[in-house]
Amino acid sequence: MIIRSCFYYYYKQPHMKIKALGKQLNPKLYPSLGIMVLLTGTLGLQSSFAQEENSKKEVKPLLFKQQMVASESYETVGVYDVNKDGKPDIISGAFWYEAPEFQNRHFIGNVKRFGNGEYYDDLAHIPIDVNGDGNMDFATGGWDNQQMVWMENSGNNQEWKQHLIDQTGNVETARGWDVDNDGQVEIVPNNPGHPLKFYKLEKDAAGKATGKFTKIPVADKQGHGLGFGDVNGDKRGDFIISNGWVEAPQDPLKGKWIIHNEFELGTASVPILVVDVNKDGKNDLIVGQGHGYGLDWYEQKTDASGKKRTWAKHPIDPFVAQYHTMEWIDLDGDGEEELVTGKRYRAHNGRDPGEKDPLGVFYFKWNGESFTKHVISYGPYGVGKGAGVIFAIADLRGTGRKDIIVAGKDGLAIFYNEGTDY
Ligand SMILES: [Ca+2]
Ligand SMILES: [Ca+2]
Ligand SMILES: [Ca+2]
Ligand SMILES: [Ca+2]
Fold first, then answer.
1. pTM (predicted TM-score)
2. What is the CA(115)–ligand 3 centre distance, in A?
């Protein structure tokens, strides 16, 4: 099935471009250029022509081709080379699926169901070689068992062994972020109603992973939703929770983290993205509503002193519910990142607003003033695909283009990126 991205909007109005140029000439970023424009105006005119030329560069919408992999209902997925044959495999729930066809599956181990039977204690998927044996393992967690665990890649066709990381409190999901900037991700669970903390994998003197984790406390309590990125521009990654951002100390392992209650994001997505949407030099937030309608970006603004910070909310898509997860990645290869996200099918097993609305996976492209929506998949159950709790983006075929691999209670699917050559 070929799915044509739609709602593509390519804006050509020259007067709009000049306005956009004015926005881009941030004097902090281009001080000498800014002064020259003020003095002569000539360069500004030339720049606007150059900008007009740039605006004519076509960035066509991508085509995607869907392949169903399995009718399983796990909500997370990872992509990496399980059997070390040089090809990336797909790992989701109780199975991994062998490249290049992803039709041969291998059993990892049973995953416990909970609640009314629709959920699994497998709400995360963080690839990490925990025991340093060269076989990629993964970390996951459960709401019901209140644990983070890691699954040991057996390296053969035996079942994978489960190891406890910690009893964390209910796990909404978790992500791997390099909090201390040493090149190795830390494990960060989103535990609504419980403290915010992260887990660092310890290494021995030779730099080999030991299988042991150290817990580092961050904040007394967190809500639904979690993000990581540098909010205040000091080059240290901060945490975003539903009611504020938590400022990183100089030493993120030993220092005190400081909460700034500057917003209220509701049942926010995981991740909350920390990216500079409007390219003004200050990182903004992109927030989905995991259990309601809405997808917004929050523009970071500071007063003249640079100290008082406010956040202006801008809608991206108010009309789709259960934006529970997202990624910020250059999907179309134009050197700019796009927002990739979608609706989580049956996020609360039928109890959320918008539960019966169509499903979808989308990418949103920043057009200089707002986001333009492109549809990868859309429709009722069986036609449109839900995005699950964690999806993966990887080049599965060696085409140089990034494919999207999506799990969920409506099955496991690949959206092959067919590019723009059509
Ligand atoms: Ca391993
Ligand atoms: Ca920071
Ligand atoms: Ca910004
Ligand atoms: Ca791009």
1. 0.87
2. 41
